[in-house]
Structure formats: structure tokens, C-alpha cells
Design a protein that fits this description.
The protein is α+β, with helices and mostly antiparallel strands and 602 residues long. The chain is built from 20 helices and 17 strands. Strand 13 and strand 14 form a beta hairpin. The longest helix is centred in the first third of the chain and has 19 residues, at 160-178.
Length: 602
């Protein structure tokens, strides 16, 4: 079973992102005229890769190359950590593990893979999950691989006993990631940069979700997303196209198209409105500094310029960050990546520092170098250097269909496999001005999140305890309270009943009305209405009336505001409220505050 340790996943991801973004001159390979099985529809062909569609919604990509001696079968499911709901974090990754636990027809998948010279291999990322096998090219192996992938698409056990056995494996991955200072800091940066979107959450999930997810919830997740209409099958290398289509129809064509409708994901990350910073303090020997910026999706035209912009900054030894930080010995190394996602992604840059290096000095130099690209555009030489490297990487990949079969998962996750070629064509046209415009648009202080890892020998943390429902029930089981609160009376608020109880009189120059009734808690309420004038005398003096009312609450010549609100010598347990009203020409406003002294005047 593959171990998705952070370093392995991170570097393989960066390689995939780079390869998915680079370019070469197109090649011309004409697809053979083959007889297609009934029901399979040919959709399109691009540079030797042909797309077909099955009635159940499955997309099929065939990339034959008879000069190779191996074949790769890769199936990509459009489900990743982006699709997980509350309490489901890590489900896509858990399914990747459980998909190797077998089906009724293939009960021991790891053993089958080993016996054919392959190994269990799958990856999970934010927008997709994929499984692949590369094996010696022959009809028997291809027949087996297609049968395997079709069977575990809908017949995987996803059993409780297997889930329990995989907990230890996933926990080991979690602990490995938690012991990686850089990985932890990058995750904190993403978590701070994304307030609402799942791109801010780790693909491996929360420990509590992974350890407590009910098996029926995981099974429902599997049945929802592991279906032919949510998958793309790629066969690359040496094989016969007509025979392969027949096998695909045999194994995948019998899977019915599901009735369910996949939920629309409509959560969008709002525009960042200011710089953010997060600091991680853990045991370690090295400091890290990360600066990240929100950027468009990998399918956006600007993604090509952002990809080259990233390489211009981190390229070794000509990159601007390398020259400003490594050559001046302010840091040990610089690196970064452009996370090209299905939805708006993330562009980040990182440095590694020795303990004796100054974080403040490195931070200032790093941010100044990154964001100065908006004012100091790259030279033609800088652009051509990274473009040439991109051409070479793409050419090497395209010359190996088995690698293409795997790398296409990244473009499939963006929305369509042809984006791999489209991004190549876009990069071919990128100018220094395009890169400067991208820098001006995205490399802004308000769009920036900075992460710092500070090695700390003895981190001081606040461990916050949780309380379970059963503990709460135990706390309140025999609770009776320490006082009896007067319940008050059932009062009929009809005008006739109110008028029957009201007592009116004069107190000095005030008109006073008393309404005796039993209130809950023996509270007493006093309402004071002050009429400052009429509509003529109060014309344009509404603010003066408002402030006069406010100042009445601020104390008197004999008592301060605090003294009026608190009487430590009061023996009565009754509570009194005062509500003061003032009337202006158009309004009738009120405010209130506690005033215990009024009780004695009631």
C-alpha cells in the first residue's frame, strides 16, 4: 500500500504541477481507424490521445505507443478533500486505502499487483483520487487490470474491519506529517488563507474524523463518488486499441449509470482583505518562512503566467529569490509551487533558515523580492530560461505514454484532460508583460499570508478540555438550584384589566401611574417619559433631545453613575429597571439601565 507521507506527496505533486504546465511543439499522431464496440462514442483526438464516451458516462482516454514494452492503466475519480463535508475530512484519503482491501472477485489486490510486477499505487489530492498500474504489455495483464478497476469501482468491500485495521496506517501518516516542520507550517498557511473553502484543510483529514467516522457514512461517500459518470479511465503504452475498447465495454459498460445527482459545490472563498500571519512553535532545528497568495484556477489563462512567474522567482541559481536570499547567506534554500486547482488555487514561496539566521531580515528581503516583480518585470532572458526548462520537461513526459497516463490526472481534475495541452500553448505565448501583470494582480500585500516556523525547545500550549454529553448529564442529574425565583402571576393585559388596576396621582409636578402586579423574580419596572416640546419647538433639535436623554443616565450631583447602578447596602432581593423615554418631533426612543434605588420610591 502506498504511504502518502507528506514529503512524498508534496514533491510528487510539485513535479506533477510542473509537468502539467510546461510545453513543447505539438506532435502529429493520427489515430487509427478502428471499429468501436456498440455504444461507445468517439469524442475527440488531440496529439495521439483519443477520448471515448460510454453510455453510463465513463470517459476513456487511449494513448497507444507500440514502441513501449509496458502499459499503464490509470483511473481518476473526481473526488478529493474539496468534496468532504463537516465530519468527513479525510474520507477521500480513507477510501484510497480501503479500495486496496479487495472485492468479491479480487479479494487480495496487493497480492495480485505484486504477482504481475506492479505495486499498489494510488494518490489523493484536493480535487481528485487516482489508482494506476504499470505492467508488462500483454493481453492477459491488460484484461486483468481493466477487470480489477471496473470491479472495485462499485464492488469494493469498504468494510468496518478493514477501516479499523487501516486506522494505524493513516495515523502513522498523520504523525509523519505532524513531525514535518515545513509541512505543518504550509498547512497552517493554507488554513489561514482559506476561511471557508476546503482547500484550507489537509487532505489527510482531522484525526477525530478519521478515528470516529461511521462505516456507513464512508460507504455512502464511496457509492456517491465512485461511479462511471464521475471517472476518467486512461490506458497508455503498448496495446491494441480495438481490443482494449472491447475489454472496456465488457468490464465497464455493464456498470449502470447511477440515478443520483452529484451535489453542486458552491462555497467560494471571498477576496482576502488584508495580510495574515501565522506562527508555528514546535520542537525543531530549522526555521521556515512561507509567503502565499491566492491565484486563479489552473484552467484560467493567467495560470500559465503564474507558473512561469513562480519559476522565475525560485529557479536555482538564477532565480530572484535564490540570488537575494541564498547567495547572500540569509537563508539555506528557497523553493515554492503554484497549486493549480479546479477552483482558485494558491501560489507560495518558502525559505529554510538556520537557527542563527534572522527571520525578520529574511522576511523583509523575501517579501520585497516577490512583490517587487510588479514594478520590475522579468527580462526576456528570464522568461526564456524558464520556458526552455518547461519545454524539456513536457517533451520528456510526452515521450513516455506511461507518464502521460498518470500526469493527465492533474488536468482531468481541473475540468478536462486537454487543458494539459492548452496550458502548454498558453505558456508558449507568455510575455514579460504578462508576468508583470500577473504579479501586479496577485502578488499584493492584501492577498498575502505569511507563515513562520520557530523552533521551540519546550512549546507552551493551552490544552483545552472537551466535555461529553454523558458528562453533562452526570453534572445536572441531581441539580436543584440554590434559590427560589418568584414565578409572578398570570396577568390579563387587556385595556379593561389594566385600567382596573392602575392608580394615578401627582408627585410634585410629575404625573405618576402605578400598576401593581406580581412579576417574575419580584422585579419592579419604572418608566419615565420626558416631553421636551412639540413639533414646532423641537424643529431641527432632535440631536439635542437625544443627547439630553443620554446624559440623564450619567449620574447626578449627589450620585455617580456607578453609585446609581449599584447599592451594596441594599437588603432587598428585588430587582428594579428604569426605562427612560424622550419624545421628539418624529421619534419615540427608549433606553434602559438597572437602577435599584428606584425600588424604594415605588
Amino acid at each position: 500500500m502506498i504511504t502518502n507521507r507528506f514529503a512524498e506527496r508534496f514533491y510528487s505533486l510539485v513535479l506533477a504541477l510542473v509537468l502539467a504546465s510546461v510545453l513543447i511543439a505539438p506532435i502529429n499522431i493520427l489515430a487509427q481507424n478502428i471499429k468501436m464496440p456498440e455504444g461507445i462514442q468517439k469524442v475527440t483526438s488531440v496529439e495521439g490521445i483519443t477520448e471515448y464516451r460510454l453510455p453510463n458516462g465513463l470517459k476513456v482516454l487511449l494513448f497507444p505507443d507500440q514502441t513501449k514494452q509496458t502499459t499503464t492503466v490509470n483511473i481518476t475519480y473526481l473526488v478529493g478533500s474539496r468534496h468532504e463535508n463537516y465530519g468527513e475530512t479525510g474520507m477521500a484519503h480513507l477510501l484510497e486505502h480501503l479500495a486496496f482491501k479487495g472485492t468479491p472477485r479480487h479479494p487480495n489486490i496487493p497480492q495480485e499487483l505484486t504477482s504481475r510486477g506492479a505495486r499498489p499505487n494510488g494518490t489523493t489530492w484536493v480535487d481528485r483520487t487516482n489508482y494506476f498500474e504499470t505492467f508488462a504489455a500483454n493481453d492477459e495483464n491488460l484484461n486483468w487490470a481493466l477487470d480489477l478497476e471496473a470491479d472495485r469501482m462499485v464492488n469494493s468491500f469498504i468494510a468496518k474491519k478493514d477501516l479499523e485495521s487501516e486506522f494505524s496506517v493513516v495515523r502513522n501518516e498523520m504523525e509523519s506529517g505532524e513531525n514535518n516542520p515545513f509541512g505543518v507550517t504550509l498547512q497552517r498557511v493554507l488554513g489561514s488563507a482559506y476561511e471557508w473553502h476546503n482547500y484550507g484543510k489537509s487532505t489527510i483529514g482531522a484525526r477525530s474524523d478519521v478515528e470516529n467516522v461511521p462505516i456507513d457514512r464512508l460507504q455512502a461517500f464511496y457509492k456517491k463518488y465512485y461511479q462511471p459518470d464521475n471517472a476518467v479511465l486512461v490506458v497508455a503504452g503498448k496495446f491494441d486499441e480495438a481490443k482494449t475498447l472491447g475489454l472496456i465495454q465488457k468490464y465497464f459498460g455493464v456498470i449502470p449509470k447511477p440515478d443520483r445527482k452529484l451535489p453542486e459545490i458552491y462555497t467560494a472563498e471571498p477576496t482576502q482583505d488584508g495580510e495574515r500571519q501565522v506562527t508555528v512553535r514546535r520542537v525543531g532545528d530549522t526555521q521556515y518562512l512561507i509567503a502565499g497568495y491566492h491565484v486563479p484556477p489552473g484552467s484560467h489563462p493567467d495560470s500559465a503566467a503564474v507558473t512561469l512567474m513562480t519559476n522565475i522567482l525560485i529557479n536555482e541559481p538564477a532565480g530572484r529569490l535564490y540570488k537575494a536570499l541564498v547567495e547572500t547567506k540569509k537563508v539555506s534554500s528557497v523553493f515554492g509551487a503554484n497549486f493549480a486547482f479546479k477552483e482558485p488555487g494558491y501560489n507560495w514561496y518558502a525559505t529554510e533558515l538556520r537557527k542563527e539566521n534572522s527571520l525578520d531580515e529574511a522576511r523583509k528581503t523575501m517579501l520585497d523580492t516577490i512583490e517587487s516583480l510588479a514594478k520590475n518585470p522579468p527580462t526576456k532572458e528570464e522568461v526564456e530560461r524558464v520556458r526552455t526548462a518547461a519545454l524539456k520537461n513536457f517533451e520528456l513526459t510526452l515521450n513516455d505514454p506511461n507518464q502521460v497516463g498518470l500526469i493527465l490526472s492533474s488536468s482531468i481534475a481541473l475540468g478536462d484532460w486537454r487543458l494539459w495541452f492548452l496550458n502548454r500553448d498558453r505558456i508558449k505565448k507568455v510575455t514579460p508583460e504578462d508576468i508583470q501583470r500577473a504579479a501586479q494582480t496577485y502578488l499584493k500585500q492584501s492577498n498575502r499570508t505569511v507563515g513562520i516556523f520557530v523552533p521551540t525547545e519546550k512549546p507552551d500550549r493551552a490544552e483545552v478540555p472537551a466535555v461529553k454529553d454523558v458528562e453533562i448529564l452526570s453534572m445536572v442529574k441531581d441539580y436543584k438550584g440554590d434559590a427560589t425565583v418568584a414565578a409572578g402571576e398570570a396577568f390579563d393585559p387587556s385595556p379593561t384589566n389594566i385600567e382596573a388596576r392602575v392608580k394615578r396621582m401627582k408627585v410634585g409636578g410629575l404625573d405618576v401611574a402605578f400598576l401593581p402586579k406580581e412579576n417574575r423574580g419580584d422585579s419592579v419596572v419604572a418608566n419615565l417619559v420626558l416631553r421636551y416640546g412639540d413639533e414646532k419647538t423641537l424643529m431641527n433639535r432632535g440631536d439635542a433631545a437625544y443627547f439630553a436623554g443620554q446624559l440623564l443616565q450619567r449620574g447626578t450631583a449627589k450620585r455617580t453613575r456607578q453609585q446609581r447602578n449599584f447599592n451594596p447596602n441594599r437588603k432587598s432581593k428585588k430587582r428594579a429597571d428604569i426605562r427612560c423615554f424622550y419624545r421628539t418631533r418624529q421619534t419615540f426612543q427608549h433606553f434602559s439601565e438597572r437602577s435599584p434605588q428606584l425600588l424604594w420610591h415605588n
